[in-house]
């Protein structure tokens, strides 16, 4: 397993180098299969992967992919054998009229919420992401409009935690205004001191979950018409896939303010309550009973 993991890591490293940046989005099997086909097509070499004596990176990649594909297919078959007979699942029905009513946290959110408290051993720590992006000729007003459009679009960018351990999406919030600092005329030492101070303030931010917003954006103007965007984003209301969506849509709205984003149907509240309903239904009861029988 260790050897296979190393081989897969080498293949992934080549995949990312070749431009398969959507690995997280579409999954390892799809990304690597598509890349392998592109490599073969671009090279014009239809020879069998891993031909004896051929140690080129491309053929090594294809040989590794072939081995990983076999392991992946076996893993899928094993999972399929464990699945029970198909059971009807409840249909998620959006309730937009209730979107601002309190609803339960997920177990992960609840853990993140508790972990911020001093009463928990090793607590007072937030799940959090800090990011700096340098943008040439940044239009601050346009960036503000794009970000505020996302706050209005995505409920969880307006979410807060309640004292009883539930959460709530606020119906209205003030417009976000980017705090800007002009360091373009400062000397190098002053500029680095300012950047270090912003980084220190935002990189380990432990936001109070009961007060909006759970993010903070700042701008530092640098020499040569470059501006640095500082993003501090709390992971209590965002996960890894959320970041992918958020920055993709931010880029779209900043580069094209008139871009028409796909309408959203379900909200996070709908998902959480739908999951609760699933846990109270027959499919969950059957799965629970099956695993109780299998576990020692």
On the 0-100 scale, what is the average pLDDT? Answer: 81
Structural class: alpha+beta
Give the biggest beta sheet.
4 strands, mixed
Task: Give the assembly state of these chains.
Answer: single chain
**Physical arrangement of strands within the biggest beta sheet:** 2-7-6-5
Sheet-strand content, in percent, reads 5-15%
Order of helices and strands: HHHHEHEHEEEHEEHHH
What global shape is seen? globular
Tell me the distance between the termini: 26 Å
**Number of helical regions:** 10
Poorly predicted tracts of residues: 1-12, 14-36, 42-52
Which range best describes the helical content: under 10%, 10-25%, 25-40%, 40-55%, 55-70% or over 70%? 40-55%
CA radius of gyration: 24 Å
Give me the count of strands. Answer: 7
Protein model, in words:
The protein is of the alpha+beta class. Helix content is about 50%, strand content about 15%. It is built from 10 helices and 7 strands. Strands 2-7-6-5 form a 4-stranded mixed sheet, with helices on one face. A 3-stranded antiparallel sheet has the order 1-4-3, with helices on one face. Helix 1 crosses helix 4, helix 3 runs antiparallel to helix 4 and helix 6 crosses helix 8. It is globular, with a radius of gyration of 24 Å. The chain starts with a helix and ends with a helix. The N terminus is likely disordered.
Distinctive features:
disordered N terminus; alpha+beta; 296 residues; 7 strands; three-stranded antiparallel sheet; 48% helix; four-stranded mixed sheet; globular; 13% strand; 10 helices
Question: Would you kindly provide a brief summary of this structure?
Answer:
The two termini are 26 Å apart. The chain has helices at residues 2-17, 23-26, 28-43, 57-82, 107-115, 140-153, 188-202, 240-255, 268-279, 282-294; strands at 103-104, 128-136, 159-161, 166-169, 179-182, 215-222, 226-234.
């Amino acid at each position: 397993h260790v050897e296979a993991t190393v081989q897969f890591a080498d293949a992934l490293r080549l995949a990312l180098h070749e431009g398969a940046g959507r690995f997280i989005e579409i999954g390892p099997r799809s990304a690597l299969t598509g890349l392998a086909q592109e490599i073969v097509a671009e090279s014009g070499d239809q020879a069998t992967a891993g031909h004896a004596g051929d140690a080129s990176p491309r053929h090594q990649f294809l040989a590794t992919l072939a081995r990983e594909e076999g392991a992946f297919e076996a893993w899928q078959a094993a999972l399929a054998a464990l699945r029970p007979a198909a059971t009807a699942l409840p249909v998620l029905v959006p309730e937009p009229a209730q979107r601002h009513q309190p609803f339960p946290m997920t177990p992960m959110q609840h853990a993140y919420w508790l972990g911020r408290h001093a009463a928990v051993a090793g607590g007072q720590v937030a799940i959090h992401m800090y990011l700096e992006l340098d943008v040439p000729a940044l239009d601050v007003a346009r960036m503000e409009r794009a970000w505020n459009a996302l706050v209005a679009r995505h409920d969880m960018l307006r979410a807060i935690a309640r004292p009883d351990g539930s959460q709530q999406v606020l119906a209205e919030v003030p417009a976000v205004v980017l705090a800007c600092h002009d360091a373009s005329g400062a000397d190098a030492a002053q500029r680095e001191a300012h950047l270090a101070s912003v980084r220190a303030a935002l990189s380990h931010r432990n936001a109070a979950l009961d007060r909006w917003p759970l993010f903070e954006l700042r701008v530092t103007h640098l020499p040569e018409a470059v501006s640095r965007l500082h993003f501090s984003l709390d992971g209590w209301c965002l996960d890894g896939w959320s970041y992918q969506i958020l920055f993709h849509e931010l880029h779209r709205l900043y580069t094209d303010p008139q871009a028409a984003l796909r309408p959203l149907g379900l909200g996070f509240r709908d998902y959480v309550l739908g999951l609760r309903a699933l846990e109270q239904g027959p499919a969950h009861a059957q799965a629970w009973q099956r695993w109780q029988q299998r576990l020692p």
